[in-house]
Amino acid sequence: MIFIKRTFILSIIIISIIVLAFFSTPKKQKPLNKIIEDERMSETDSDGEPLDEELETAMMKEDPVRDFISDQLKRAANFFFTNEINVVAIGDSLTEGVGDETENGGYVGVLDETINEEKQLVHFDNFGKRGNRSGQLIERLGEREIKRAIEKSHIVLITIGANDIMQVFKDNFTDLSLDQFTSEQIKYEQRLETIFDTIKNLNEDTEIYLIGFYNPFKRYFSDIEELDYIVESWNTIGADVANRYEKGYFIPMVDIFDEAENEFYLSGDNFHPNHTGYEMMAERILQFVIHEGERNNE
């Protein structure tokens, strides 16, 4: 089924994505020390006086992400403290943290700061690489450093597949059809199985969490139903593959970004999450990891 009236709009989107995802260099992010300085400046009132301590505390309490992570930190500490936990994050630009204006490593950096805020409880290895497709990740799983990290891991976090979808766009954008995505989806499923098999062969006891896709164009092109269908069907494949494996889990993300009515969770490229978006991803990941940890310890 060929996209009919929406072909022109979709083609423009595709071209923009290809330029951003494959051929452009990342925008230079604001230095972290500048961000910290800006935050310090924002903590003064219009007269240049520091904010009242009670007011500052109240403002912090109004931040639902901060509240959630603070609460979950206590539960996470209780779960992780009794073990020496090694977490390996592998995959594409979402694991690398592209779009995080704080240059703090995206969701992996948020998890690290949250869990290890008061005491080093968990060691994180981040092997995210911008542009990686599932086939390329399979090749990287043969690298000595990644193999050794997985062999010692207790948890493996994966983001992979968005660039597989983008490759279909890139190769067929002048004549797109849903059949092309369905055909590639079958190959993606096979490669996902290879990824899970490879990890389990290296460490059969590790927990594997596959992190789902979101539709970055939902905010501006909500009427293009085909985009939602592609994201939903590929997420379904990911969930099916993860659930075939012992200690294999799928973490959905699409609802976080779809339901962001008054918050904008994407970075300046309108494709990758910004720091707030990565905070929301970290929140969801922490929820799932803690839930499974508690269930396994029952």
From TrEMBL:
The keyword Hydrolase applies. Residues 89-279 form the SGNH hydrolase-type esterase domain. GO terms for molecular function: phosphatidylcholine lysophospholipase activity. It holds the Pfam family Lipase_GDSL_2. This is SGNH/GDSL hydrolase family protein. Keywords: Hydrolase, Membrane, Transmembrane, Transmembrane helix. The chain crosses the membrane at residues 7-25. It comes from Candidatus Pseudogracilibacillus intestinigallinarum. CDD domains: SGNH_hydrolase_YpmR_like.
